[in-house]
C-alpha cells in the first residue's frame, strides 16, 4: 500500500481544506432550503458550536478489476454541542475535482 502517496495527493489538492469548505457550503444550503428540518436537528443553531474532524480518507476502486473509475473519498465527522450529529462525505476524482458530496444525519 502506498499510504504516503495518498497523503501526498490529499496535500497536493488541498483536500482537507476543500472538504471542510464543501461541508460549510452544503450545510448552509441545507439550512436555507430545509429550515424546519434544520431547526429540528440543530435547535438554536450556533456555528461556533460546530466541530469538524477528518474521519476517514480512502481510495475507492470502482469497476473492478479494470480500475477505470477511482476516487479519493473523505468523510468529515461533525459534532454539534459536543454530540456527534452527522457526517459529510465528499468524493474527489483522481484529478482533484469534486465528483459528488452528501450529508448524512445520525
UniProtKB/TrEMBL annotation:
- What is the organism of origin for this protein? Paenibacillus roseus
Which domain of life does the UniProt lineage start with?
Bacteria
Name this polypeptide is given = Uncharacterized protein
Amino acid at each position: 500500500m502506498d499510504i504516503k502517496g495518498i497523503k501526498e495527493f490529499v496535500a497536493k489538492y488541498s483536500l482537507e481544506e476543500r472538504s471542510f469548505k464543501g461541508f460549510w457550503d452544503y450545510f448552509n444550503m441545507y439550512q436555507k432550503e430545509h429550515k424546519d428540518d434544520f431547526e429540528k436537528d440543530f435547535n438554536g443553531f450556533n456555528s461556533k458550536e460546530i466541530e469538524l474532524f477528518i474521519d476517514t480518507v480512502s481510495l475507492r476502486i470502482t469497476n473492478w478489476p479494470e480500475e477505470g473509475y477511482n476516487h479519493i473519498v473523505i468523510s468529515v465527522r461533525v459534532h454539534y454541542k459536543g454530540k456527534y450529529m452527522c457526517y459529510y462525505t465528499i468524493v474527489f476524482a483522481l484529478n482533484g475535482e469534486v465528483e459528488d458530496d452528501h450529508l448524512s444525519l445520525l
